[in-house]
Hints:
The complex is a heterotrimer of chains A (287), B (428) and C (290). With 287 residues, chain A is an all-alpha fold. Chain A has 13 helices and no strands. Chain A has two domains: 38 residues; 219 residues, MetI-like (MetI-like fold), CATH 1.10.3720. By secondary structure, chain C is mainly α. Chain C has a single domain, classed as MetI-like fold.
Amino acid sequence: MTKASSHIGGRKVTVFRAIKMIIAIVMLIIYLFPFALVLVNSLKTKLTIVKHPLQLLDAKGLQWVNYKNAIDQMNFGRSFANSLFVVGISVVLLMLFASMAAWLFVRTDWAACKISFSAMLASMIVPFQVVMIPLISIYGAQFHMLNHRMTMVFMNLGFGVSMCTFMCHGFIKGNIPVALEEAARIDGAGYHRTFFTIVLPLLKPILSTVAILEILSYWNDYLLPSMVFTRKEFYTLPLAIRTFYGEFSSDYGNIMAGLTLSVAPVILVYLLLQKYVIGGIVAGAVK
Amino acid sequence: MKKILALALALAMLLMTAGLTASAEEVGQPMAEKVSITMMNSKPEITAALQAAADLFGAAYNVSIEVTETSSPGDELAKRYNAGDAPTISIVDIANVKDLAREDKILDLGDQPWAAIGGKEMGAVINDVLYGMPLTIESKALLVNKTAVEKITGETFDPLKYQTKGDFEALLQQLREGGMENPVIINQEDWSIGSHFVQYFYGIQDGTIAGAEAFIEKVRAGEESFADNAVFNACMDMFDLYMEYNINKQDPLSADYDLNADYLAEGEAAFWINGTWAWPNMVPFVQDDQEYTIMHMPTDAGAQGKLLAQATKYIVVDKADASAEAQEAAKKFLNWLIYTEEGQNAMINECGMVTAFTNITLPPSNPFNVGLKNYIDAGLTCEAVTYLPSDHRSALGANMQKYLDGSETREEVAKAFDAYWAEHEVNY
Amino acid sequence: MSFRKKMLLFLSFAGPAVFFFICVVIIPLIYGIYLTFTDWNGLADTKNFVGLANYKETFQDSAFWNTLLLTTGFSFLSVLFINVIAFLLAYLLTSGVKGQNFFRAGFFTPNLIGGLILGYIWQIFFSRVLTSLYTSIPIALFQKSWLSSPGTAFAALVVVQTWQLSGYMLLIYISGFVGISEDVIEAAKIDGANEQKTTLHIRLPLMVPSFVVCLFLSLTRSFKVYDLNLSLTAGGPYNSTKMTAMHIYTQAFENHRYGTGQAEALIFFIVIAIISLTQTYIGKKREVEA
């Protein structure tokens, strides 16, 4: 899958590669630094975090107690299950609905499609503050839908569908040849079969990317869930982590331990999907 | 011997139960059917202790209380009320009580038994209606590392010895010569220097609310200006003195709150311009061999030797979304906190509050609160401000920060205050 | 195709997406616009119609326009740095650096830290790490905390925004690079194009759709910045780094001018719309030409 490897190695190429490698490593250190700070400090006492944020180890030894606190006080199992439920369902449905809509928007020039797509595009610019209070007035005070996990899924879909459709739209337009679909159509496949058997498999790379991006934003989302879930039994991870924030100062060790625990699954998902981002394109390479 | 001990123990138990039932009269009977209510707490440090107290109460009175926390009660309330999901009980600031009372969202608590024992006197009273139960008394004060001072001066530290700027300057000078280069810690946060410190301008005009309001009215009428006001200038003189001895003076606006707590805890500096609420923030850093206390701000004008202290954080009960049963359960919980031994223990020892209620005799639980109690008992407090509009901080908070880093002069600060009051009313 | 069949097709493909979108975004938006014509304070039960008073107030609120100017500058700089860095890194990571999977995972980490803790971590960096560098590298830049004077605090915001969003855009650029068909590259090589030429004439034009997406996303997100603003500088020192979203939030919830806040948010929306749609329109035209 590497492209430069087709080059015949030479001295110039080797130097060039070395430079690239060095740049990559330097940039990586810069990018990793803050997260490394989180990891290192998640095992320290507050005193050491505040006084010596860069010190690697606490004089009192590794503070695994921070992780224990995070698990206990955040009610980690329950919060994790809530996050998983909400994010899992949201992302799966989102990818399905958005890719279907995007495909129709690309392949037709109906007014309804054009209007919908433009509206979605424009909505991505709306600052959340504009819809925040109206949203909860309508779905809270009028329809009493707060404190249900499916309400969160419903809102995630509403807010996420624009960007997802937008990205799929671009991908379908640029990378999926109409000829392929027409061939299927001639073989007698309907719109639905064409989409599900021909188009959807080809969307793997973009859908993996979108999935990663959406999982990230839903998993870390605080503001919207804080309005939908006011009962602790529904708390997602970012809400649960708030236990450690104070009015003037916070339990940094616990927060960092909590953060590390809650993002670990996202890293796993990323590593898993990363293969698809690349693997998908090879498998689906169109001749 | 054992028998006598057992007997004594049994007797003590009996007395205790008797005491409990007697004092629990105000709380009343447990709820007939289980009631679930919610409580919003804007003092995140006490959430765990509060939840434990709520559980204790709930088990005895058939109520389930879920405590959630926020550090910005204003927007949280707006969200919850708009969602039709208002918390049954809310712990909030005075500005929030005003907002909720104006829209008729919260209960009049004037009929509660605790109103008479300090509740109304110290509570959130708006247009003569008691809306908020005072949760705790707090003071904007100088937090002191007593041990660190005494180590250098060689004599017992008595805060009342320092009444004027000159007295205090001499002490700071002595500390500096004794090896503590910069004994004062100034925060950079706007809530601290831009909101709390500036309340001295009003609070110690003559030490009364009436005096403060009269001063503001004069400014509004154009008869007085901050620049010409003796108290304002005396306060700014003190601020200048603090700045001169500020441990963060190299780069005052980069002061770190936690490091500040550590400076005081370890005695690197001796005075922190902050307030009694900071004890939980000190805890991770405090040293067993050091003593801490608080003191008033010395001043050359206005009310001398007085501590700015007032009830902060009030408990209100919702009436917009809460059912009659929920309201009843909520009131019961408040009475339980004030009248039962378990409730008092939760409030004073577990949550670390300084109570406004005269029936509670438990001593305060941390050194800052002990210091505050001394001032209260000696009658040396003056009421801080409850009359400031809610945008006072967002409009003026920045000016003191600019003053601190030298990008604004005293005259400019004074002008900004004059201009603000020209457009705002007291007790908005 | 009959209208009935068209409608069925539309409903079955775009129906769910459009339904959720309308319920969650459009309806509250319309309600929000209605609120700008009232004197509602955010809590009251009554809402009185006040016509255009809130808009009038918006135009007189000089603080709002100042934050808008600041936000525009912030967005411009951020978008520039984000996309240059993300693009170059994506190129680097798809051009056969050893261990690229490892690198990609590493560059992914900025996406993992969000909310208030992000601000705290970077505060440590700007106030403590940089100042401790001063002892070994005594240049003025490291002498004081970046967060204690307006210019450097603004720069700190741009740096963190760039750090975070370039990690995000990197993912999109990578999928763009990987999405370029091998055949096209091979064909170019057979025709005798060297690495540079392939990149300049083949890859770059094929990357235009990715550019359009990334520019749009980074621009809108930079304009809407709120969390970072709140957690890193809280608008300080002395309100000098307060961005528009934060100003609107203060108006609505601290100053109880909900209608005004909402009207400002709407004006803000229109400004972003004009800028980002113009940019997207230009990009799309390029896409067609390519």
